[in-house]
Design brief:
10% of the residues lie in helices and 50% in strands. It contains 2 helices and 13 strands, in the order βββββαββββββββα. A 4-stranded antiparallel sheet has the order 4-5-6-7, with no helix packed on it. It starts with a strand and ends in a 7-residue tail after the last helix.
Length: 181
């Protein structure tokens, strides 16, 4: 009956933060419940809550690729750079076998947590991962680079993205805080 929110913190520390929404509808507040430190060798992009109190997250790639031009070019290349992970209080961090993809980005989970959908950003596709089978069980090819995923009220998955990697390269090269595209 409570709303819980999990978010990736890319700020002063690399963590997954968990909040609870309290209130009666007229007045609500966000209450911090805790966090989980992200392993230092990976960079996460998005997170989805799981029914057991844990979460699934997309690993864009290894941390070493994010602080240098050659690493960034690899991340933007369309090659397989990352995978999915889960975390639970009982098991800690686990890599999901069979989930490697080109720059994993947004993620959503089915209500029972068995199925995960995630965007392979530079792969231009959205993948369906079956946690029980331990593999990608479906994919949809797109004409753009899909970013985050969200559930619609009707129960469909929504995504948006950008047309190509060239606009990302230009924005990063400029060091822009806000990009034109």
């Amino acid at each position: 009956g409570r709303v819980r929110i999990v978010v990736v913190n890319h700020g002063t520390r690399s963590t997954i933060e968990r909040f609870r929404l309290d209130g009666d509808g007229a007045q609500e507040s966000l209450v911090w419940e805790g966090c989980v430190a992200v392993p230092g060798d990976i960079e996460l992009n998005d997170v989805a809550a799981l029914p057991d109190g844990g979460f699934a997250a997309t690993v864009m790639g290894e941390a070493r690729h994010f602080d240098n031009p050659a690493g960034r070019e690899f991340l933007l290349s369309g090659e397989i750079t990352g995978h999915l992970v889960t975390w639970s209080a009982a098991k800690g961090w686990e890599t999901l076998e069979g989930s490697r993809a080109a720059f994993p980005n947004g993620i959503v989970a089915s209500p029972d947590g068995r199925t995960l959908w995630f965007a392979a950003w530079t792969g231009r596709e959205v993948l369906r991962y079956d946690r029980e089978a331990g593999k990608v069980a479906g994919r949809v090819s797109l004409t753009y680079l899909p970013d985050n995923l969200s559930w619609s009220r009707e129960g469909t998955i929504l995504t948006a993205g950008i047309p190509d990697v060239a606009s990302v390269r230009e924005c990063v090269t400029k060091g822009a805080e806000v990009c034109d595209d």
